[in-house]
C-alpha cells in the first residue's frame, strides 16, 4: 500500500512539473510579483501598481483578474491610465499594470491577498501576485490622500491633509521622505492633548514639475515603534500647455513592408490658436502629410502618420518632435515596434549542404540567410548564441535570447521549436541538425541581443522643509 502511495505521489509530481514550467513565460513579463505595503492608516488611500510588459512576438490578451480577499481590489490599467474590468490586449513591447487597491476603509489588522491574472492568448496561463499590509486604526488621514488634481505645467500647487494619532500624547512626525524631488512638505503641529496628536501636512508641487501623471507616496517617519513609518498617497496630473496624443505609439510586431497608420493629435490645452512650424522624425519609416504654412492657426491639429516597416529586422524605438510658434515645450512622441524576419546574408557567407543520417534515413538541409527551425529530442541539450525568436510548444515566441540553452528533460514530452526570428540564419532540420557542427556554426552568425535594462529607482530623499511655526 505504501509503495502504491509513493508511486501516485511521484506521478502527481511528474504531471505538475510541466504545468509549473509552462507558466514561467507569463511570470517573466512582471518586474515583481509580491509587494508588502507595510503599515498603513485606517481609511487612507493605499495602492500599488504591478507593472508588466509583453516580451513576445504574439499579441497578449489578459482575460480577467481576481482577488482572493475583499481587502484588495485589482484593476487592469491600459497604457495612458485608462482602466478596464473586461480584459486587456497588449502588443509586442506594450506595457500594462495591475492596480492593487488596499481597502483600508473596510478592514483592520494584518491582511493579505493573492491576485490571480488569467491569460487566454496566445496561450493559457495564470500569474499570481501577492500583496499584504497592516491596517492600524490609531492613525486617521483626512482627506485620505493628497489630491493635487490637474495642474497646468509651470504653475505651483498646494494641498493640505490632516493626520491624527490617538492613544499616545508624545507621538511625533520626525521626517518626511519621497523619491520625487518635485515636492516640498511642511509639517505643522496643530494640537496635542492627553489622548491625541494632530498635524497638518502642507504638500507643495514645484512649478518645475514635468508634465505627466503623478502617482507617488510620501513616507512619514515617526517616533512610534509600532508604526515607525507609514505612507500617504499623492496623485494628480501636470498638463503641458501643448499636449501630444498619444505620447507613446506601440505599433507591435510587423513584417518588412507592413504599413499602418495613426492619428497624432496636437492640442493647446488653453484653447489658444497656434501654428505647427515643423514635425521632425528620426525614423525614415515614419512619414506624414506636410502642413500648409499659410493655413490659419488652430487650437487643435490632427496629423495622420504612416509607418512602413523597414527591411532591417529588430526592435525600433524612435522619437517624433514637434516645433510650434507658441514658445512652449512640446512633449515628444515615442514610436516603438518590432520588425520580424531575417536579412539575407552576404553571398560569400552562404553555407549550403546535405547531411544524411544513416540510422534514421532522414536528410538534413541547412542554409545561412533564412529563418531557423529545428527541434530537440527529450533529454537533449544544445547551446546556441542567438537573437532569433524561440518557440516552445504551448508558449509564445520569445523575441531575444543571449545564450540559447535548450534542454528537454525526459519527463517532459513537448519539444522545443525555433521558429523564424529577428536576425540570423535558417537551419531546416530534425533533431540530428542541432548536433551537427556545421549547423551550429551557422547559428554563430547571429548578432548579440540588445536586452532591456531595468532602470534603477531613485533613492528616497528627505524633502521635509524647516518648520516655520506650530500651533497649539
List keywords for this structure.
Immunoglobulin-like; 48% strand; 4 domains; single chain; 8-stranded mixed β-sheet; 472 residues; mainly beta; 5-stranded mixed β-sheet
What is the CATH architecture assignment of the largest domain?
Answer: Sandwich
What is the β-strand count?
32
Poorly predicted tracts of residues: 13-20, 342-378, 380-389, 400-462
Oligomer: single chain
* Helical fraction: under 10%
Tally of discrete structural domains: 4
Q: β content, as a range?
A: over 45%
End-to-end CA span: 77 Å
Number of helices: 3
User: Mean of the pLDDT scores?
Assistant: 75
Major sheet attributes: 8 strands, mixed
Q: What would you report as the Rg, rounded to the nearest angstrom?
A: 28 Å
What does this entry look like structurally?
With 472 residues, the protein is mainly beta. The chain folds into four domains: 23-137, Sandwich (Immunoglobulin-like); 145-239, Immunoglobulin-like (Sandwich); 242-339, Immunoglobulins (Immunoglobulin-like), CATH 2.60.40; 347-443, no CATH class. It contains three helices and 32 strands. The chain has helices at 2-22, 24-27, 437-443, and strands at 34-42, 46-53, 60-67, 72-77, 83-84, 88-90, 95-102, 109-121, 125-142, 146-152, 157-166, 173-178, 183-192, 196-205, 212-222, 229-239, 242-245, 248-254, 259-268, 276-281, 286-288, 300-308, 314-324, 333-339, 352-357, 362-367, 381-385, 391-392, 403-407, 416-417, 426-428, 461-462. The chain is flat. The N and C termini lie far apart (77 Å). Mean pLDDT is 75; it is low at 13-20, 342-378, 380-389 and 400-462.
Amino acid at each position: 500500500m505504501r509503495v502504491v502511495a509513493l508511486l501516485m505521489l511521484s506521478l502527481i509530481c511528474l504531471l505538475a512539473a510541466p504545468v509549473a514550467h509552462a507558466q514561467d513565460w507569463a511570470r517573466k513579463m512582471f518586474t515583481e510579483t509580491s509587494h508588502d505595503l507595510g503599515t498603513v492608516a485606517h481609511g487612507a488611500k493605499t495602492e500599488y501598481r504591478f507593472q508588466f510588459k509583453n516580451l513576445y512576438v504574439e499579441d497578449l490578451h489578459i482575460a480577467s483578474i481576481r482577488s482572493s480577499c475583499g481587502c484588495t481590489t485589482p484593476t487592469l490599467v491600459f497604457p495612458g491610465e485608462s482602466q478596464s474590468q473586461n480584459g486587456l490586449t497588449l502588443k509586442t513591447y506594450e506595457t500594462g499594470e495591475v492596480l492593487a487597491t488596499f481597502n483600508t476603509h473596510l478592514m483592520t489588522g494584518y491582511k493579505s491577498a493573492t491576485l490571480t491574472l488569467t491569460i487566454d492568448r496566445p496561450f493559457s496561463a495564470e500569474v499570481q501576485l501577492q500583496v499584504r499590509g497592516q491596517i492600524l486604526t490609531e492613525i486617521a488621514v483626512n482627506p485620505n490622500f493628497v489630491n493635487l488634481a490637474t495642474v497646468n505645467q509651470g504653475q505651483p500647487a498646494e494641498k493640505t491633509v490632516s493626520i491624527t494619532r490617538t492613544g499616545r500624547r508624545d507621538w511625533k512626525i520626525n521626517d518626511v521622505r519621497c523619491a520625487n524631488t518635485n515636492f516640498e512638505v511642511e509639517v505643522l503641529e496643530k494640537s496635542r492633548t492627553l489622548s491625541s496628536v494632530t498635524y497638518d501636512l502642507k504638500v507643495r508641487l514645484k512649478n518645475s514639475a514635468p508634465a505627466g501623471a503623478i502617482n507617488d507616496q510620501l513616507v512619514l517617519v515617526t517616533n512610534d515603534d509600532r508604526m515607525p513609518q507609514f505612507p500617504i498617497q499623492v496623485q494628480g496630473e501636470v498638463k503641458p500647455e501643448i499636449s501630444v496624443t498619444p505620447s507613446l505609439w506601440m505599433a507591435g510586431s510587423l513584417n518588412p513592408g507592413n504599413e499602418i497608420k495613426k492619428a497624432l493629435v496636437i492640442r493647446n490645452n488653453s484653447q489658444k490658436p497656434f501654428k505647427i512650424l515643423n514635425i521632425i522624425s528620426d525614423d525614415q519609416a515614419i512619414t506624414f502629410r506636410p502642413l500648409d504654412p499659410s493655413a490659419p492657426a488652430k487650437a487643435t491639429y490632427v496629423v495622420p502618420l504612416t509607418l512602413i516597416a523597414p527591411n532591417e529586422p529588430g526592435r525600433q524605438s524612435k522619437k517624433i518632435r514637434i516645433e510650434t510658434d507658441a514658445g512652449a515645450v512640446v512633449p515628444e512622441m515615442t514610436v516603438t515596434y518590432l520588425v520580424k524576419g531575417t536579412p539575407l546574408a552576404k553571398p560569400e557567407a552562404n553555407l549550403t549542404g546535405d547531411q544524411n543520417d544513416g540510422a534514421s534515413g532522414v536528410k538534413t538541409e541547412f542554409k545561412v540567410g533564412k529563418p531557423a527551425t529545428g527541434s530537440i529530442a527529450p533529454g537533449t541539450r544544445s547551446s546556441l548564441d542567438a537573437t532569433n525568436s524561440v518557440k516552445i510548444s504551448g508558449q509564445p515566441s520569445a523575441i531575444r535570447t543571449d545564450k540559447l540553452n535548450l534542454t528537454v528533460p525526459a519527463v517532459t514530452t513537448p519539444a522545443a521549436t525555433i521558429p523564424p526570428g529577428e536576425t540570423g540564419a535558417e537551419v531546416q532540420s530534425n533533431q540530428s541538425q542541432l548536433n551537427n557542427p556545421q549547423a551550429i556554426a551557422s547559428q554563430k552568425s547571429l548578432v548579440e541581443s540588445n536586452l532591456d535594462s531595468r532602470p534603477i529607482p531613485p533613492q528616497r530623499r528627505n524633502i521635509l522643509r524647516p518648520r516655520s511655526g506650530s500651533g497649539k
